[in-house]
Amino acid sequence: MICKNCDVPFNEDFQFCPHCGGRVVNERVTTKSLLIEFAEKFLSYDNKFAKTFRMLFKAPETVINGYLQGARHKYINPFTYLLISITISGLNIYLMKKGFYGEINFTGNSDNKIENFDMQNFTSSIFDYHSFITTAFIPFFALLSKLVFWKRKDYNFAEHNIIYCYTYNHVSILTISLIIVLGFFVKSYMTLSALMYPIIFGYHFYALKRIFNLTIKQLILKSLLFFVLLAFFYIVILFIIGMLMFKSML
């Protein structure tokens, strides 16, 4: 028979093509076959997503340094991981926009006299730009990281981008998945943020400690420097936005 994937002939008794490894599929697509294929691709122990997700918890340096050193097929590449993160973020925004979580109080105050955010306008604006915002955070954090680890010549700026492409999107997949679940029960956005930020920073401290092989003292000093730089850039960005708004009012 002829392989439907690579057009190379092989014995009809084979279940897999000896040339490309493609599985022989002769039956029609059914609900059962779709569920089986989904389980094989995404839920099996050996699939790349599950393996990458586990290892980024267990040993993030193995995934990241492995990729930087040339291991490109053992785990999901960082750009695919970014797309998965953006997809889950989009699902969360869609659920918010459609009101699946109910009316969410973004003020963190249960007083009905305090006006809530306009959910329609808020989620619409984020939904329009969330992919760009998510992607833009990676080189921004990579820049901060390069400044913090400026003495480490073994990691260039591009490699810092790979580090955060994995770590940022990994913790994004985790926290947004939690928000999707908790959003049905917790109506205060401030409360959800309070629950997520310790996870976000805690994981990055853990990952960077292992990737750069830091001592506890080095981790504390590097973390303080990171927050100082983050605050500096935050003030600069706010100043630029304020100047632009001021000029637009003239």
TrEMBL record:
Keywords: Membrane, Transmembrane, Transmembrane helix. The keyword Signal does not apply. The keyword Transcription does not apply. Pfam families: DUF3667. The chain crosses the membrane at residues 79-96, 129-150, 162-186, 192-212, 224-246. It comes from the Bacteria. This is DUF3667 domain-containing protein. It comes from Flavobacterium haoranii.
